[in-house]
Amino acid sequence: MSSSMSIRVPLRQIAHARSGDKGNRSNLSVFAYEPAHYDTLRRQITPERLKEHFGGVLRGPIRRYELPNLHGMNFVMDQALEGGVNESLNLDGHGKSWSAMILALEVEIPGTE
Amino acid sequence: MDMRNTYRIGTGAGFSSDRLEPALDLLRHGKLDAIIFECVGERTLAFGHRDRRADPDKGYNPLLERRMRAVLPLAHAAGTRIITNMGVANPRAAALHTVKIAAELGLTGLKVAAVTGDEVNHLIGPDTHLLEPDCRLSETGREMLAANAYLGIEAILPAIEAGADVIITGRVADPSLFLAPLAHHFSWRLDDWSTLGAGTAVGHLMECGAQITGGYFADPGHKEVPNLAYVGFPLAEVSADGSATITKLAASGGLVSQRTVKEQLLYEVHDPGAYLTPDVSADFTQVGLADDGQDRVRVSQANGGRRPDQLKVTIAFDGGLLAEAEISYAGPGAAERARMAGDIVAERMDNLHHSNGPTRIDLIGVNALHGSAVAYDAVAQDVRLRCAMRASSQEEAETLLWEVEALLCCGPAAGGGYRGHITPSVMTYSAFVDRGDVQPELEIFAV
What is the mean pLDDT of each run of 10 residues along chain B (447 residues)? Predict the structure, then answer.
């Protein structure tokens, strides 16, 4: 590493994710492929960032749990599913597609020059 | 690994409509002590109540007939116990039907158990507090159909102790279906929170079937999965301390890796330090994963604390009729024409027909799944308009379909491919009841 240059990449390049539901609450787990990128995730993929990008849909509070031994995080998003699978008129009432949506966010990672 | 002290447990279904042949492969080649068919979710429990309402002898998993016909002879030959929540809203009817199938197949000496007591309508009233939408039940203005408490291993263990070969439950916490035979085999105490937490982690990892063997994982170019078309279902080799190796049959498609295990470990989990089931408050925060050969991941160090004093209840309500109607637009300006068509439907439903609820308008191919969360893409050239509403009457539902179909002549240019359908719907909310008020029951039928 010869400089402090950083590059912007889609989150999809350094992380994988899965989402699930319970009632009107959605959970989204995100894991760094490489342990070295866990800190990038932790710093850049925050509840505030999710609110900023997806606030129109993620209407309630968002909590984040960190799992350093798995190099991952779990987001719990209240009031995120328009009522949940049995109430929402959304085709994806489970919110299954969230995990793919989040991977479009960009993150800055150290450049290798 | 000491095989005598290893319990081999497989997943035969991870959801109500799961595939069948991976389960049959596991029964033929997995040398399983038990196979679990997990078939109930918030959505499918609601369907079960809808079905039982239409026919008191139904309300169990619609695939039970086909599954049992294929599975019973193989499980019988292999000496594998079947545990399933395929009873959904009617475990007794499911057990009786299973007995009938077993008899037709000429299987004898079979004990089929129905575990009930999860239906707790008598514990729910107008003043019951609903977690979401955080109100009293009476404030929903909807008719309650049924209330089901999540039962735990205490409901299943008596059936195992009675020697049941097939155990059919209704609403049981998914991991408990796996934990019960483990706790029985290893004689785990019901207050050994740490070990029950470890066993619950195994159950949680296994409960969604292929979601830990490469299903729900593939992303071409990023996460490759071999032979996904023939993905195998998981098999856990569980040790007496609750640690386990997650694997699959070598000949099946898919993969088991630390990545697939991690994704599943947190699936539908909120606080990873307190995953609540009727049996334990499981703690996944210290879980350790280690590679243990091809498609083998060792899972250890899950932990647990005292179980909750209350049980979660899913309450189903009549949700009226779900009306959905669609029409497509293609070529330049497709998104604008679809948007215009949607605006016309919404305008007429609101102001001409004075419909009861709002009409949802989605442009499939543009913004259907996440609405305003993504930028509006007007350059899309293949857009399907979807209009949906929860109607209070058949006539109102039909009106929505009629309005969308009428766009064929009266709407924007070049709309085609109309489809519409009306589905009875059930809504669900959650509440809590005291554990002591819920009494599991057991009936055993012999073939």
Answer: 80 97 98 97 86 93 97 98 98 98 96 98 96 89 91 98 98 98 98 98 98 97 97 98 98 98 97 98 98 98 98 92 96 95 97 90 86 70 95 95 97 96 90 97 96
**How far apart, in whole angstroms, are the C-alpha atoms of residue B86 and residue B172?**
10
List the single residue in A56, A74, A86 with the smallest CB-CB distance to B46: A86
Query: Does some domain include residue B326?
Result: no
- Supply B45's token pair: 């429990």
Q: How far is CA B193 from CA B196, B305, B386, B414, B435, in A?
A: 5, 5, 49, 64, 17
Give Cβ neighbours of residue B286 (< 8 Å, ≥ 6 apart). Answer: A69, B301, B302, B303
Place of tokens 């894991």: A31
Residue A3 pLDDT greater than 70, yes or no: no
Residue B323 within a domain: no
Domain match, B99 and B213 both: yes
Amino acid letter for position B440: P
CA distances from residue B194 to A100, B143, B177 in whole angstroms, order as listed = 34, 41, 18
Rounded Cα distance, B193 and B200, in Å: 10
Which pLDDT score is estimated for B321? 92
Same domain, B237 and B364: no
In whole angstroms, give the CA distance from residue B214 to residue B376: 33
d(CA B276, CA A18) in angstroms, rounded, equals: 20
What is the domain count for chain B? Answer: 2
Q: In terms of DSSP H, where are the helices of B58-190?
A: 64-78, 91-104, 153-161, 174-185
Q: Which of B43, B262, B369 sits opposite A97 (nearest CB)?
A: B369
Q: What is the pLDDT of residues A41-67, one digit of tens each?
A: 999 999 999 998 887 788 889 999 999
Evaluate whether residue B222 is within a structural domain.
yes
Q: In which domain, by residue range, is B54 found?
A: 3-314+431-446
Instruction: Name the residue facing B373 among A33, A56, A85 (closest C-beta).
Output: A56
Q: Do A16 and B46 touch (CB under 8 A)?
A: no
- Asked whether residue B388 falls in the same domain as residue B293, the answer is no
Letter string b/e over residues B10-38, b meaning 16 or more CB atoms within 10 A of that residue's CB: bbbbbbbebbbebbbbbbeebebbbbbbb
Q: Helix B394-410 to helix B334-351 angle, to the nearest 10 degrees?
A: 140
Question: Considering the domain boundaries, does residue B403 fall inside one?
Answer: yes
Name the residue ranges covered by the structural domains of chain A. 16-110
If asked whether residues B260 and B336 sit together in one domain, one would say: no
ipTM for the complex?
A: 0.91
Asked if residues B209 and B234 have their Cβ atoms less than 8 Å apart, the reply is yes
Kindly state whether residues B344 and B276 are assigned to the same domain: no
> Rounded to an integer, what distance in angstroms lies between the CA atom of residue A110 and that of residue B134?
45
CB contact under 8 A, A86 and B262: no
- H or E element that contains A58: none
